[in-house]
Amino acid sequence: MNEFLAELFEQAKQARGRAHAPYSRFQVGAALRAASGAVYSGANVENAAYPLGVCAETSAIAAMVAGGDREILEMLVLGPKRIAPCGACRQRMSEFAKGSMLVYLADASGACSRHSLSELLPHAFGPEDLNGNADVE
Ligand code: THU
pLDDT tens digits, residue range 19-32? Predict the structure, then answer.
């Protein structure tokens, strides 16, 4: 693991330790590097009203936007074991993945697999699909 990935792993690990997951007891942390070079992290935040829970990846993306960045270069996801992001989070990544974004799926030992976002979300729907197709009179 190179130093850039190690930094993402460390940030994801710290965020995972702060996850609010009392219902599933499934803690997840995520850390991303934005085009500016800044690193943002997030954890899953569950709620007693179950459907309101937010995934770690989405939290990290919200932190990035609040921090003033708009482009994700790479993201590392760390769960209790190696897990793949849910479909909604893949779509949210896609919104901010201008180039060929990479997604690293890690386990606690630091072992990780590397995927392009287009591998995880082929044929994505994006802003360009909205152009000129609105059903307005
Ligand atoms: N979760 C994430 O935060 N990221 C994933 O990639 C998969 C699932 C969360 C959602 C919920 O709080 C818990 O893990 C169990 O699904």
Answer: 999 999 999 999 99
Q: Token pair of 1, please? A: 């693991």
- The answer to whether residue 136 is domain-embedded is no
Query: For 60-102, how does the pLDDT look when each residue is reduced to its tens digit (9 = 90+)?
Result: 999 999 999 999 999 999 999 999 999 999 999 999 998 789 9
Q: Which domain holds residue 15?
A: 3-130
What is d(CA 64, CA 107) in angstroms, rounded to the nearest whole number?
Answer: 23
Residue type, 13: K
| Predicted local distance difference test score (pLDDT) of residue 132 | 78
For residue 106, the one-letter residue type is A
> Mutate which of 18, 28, 93 to test ligand 1's pocket (most atoms within 8 Å of Cβ)?
28
128 in active site = no
Domain count, the chain: 1
CATH number at residue 84: 3.40.140.10
| C-alpha of residue 10 to centroid of ligand 1, in Å | 19
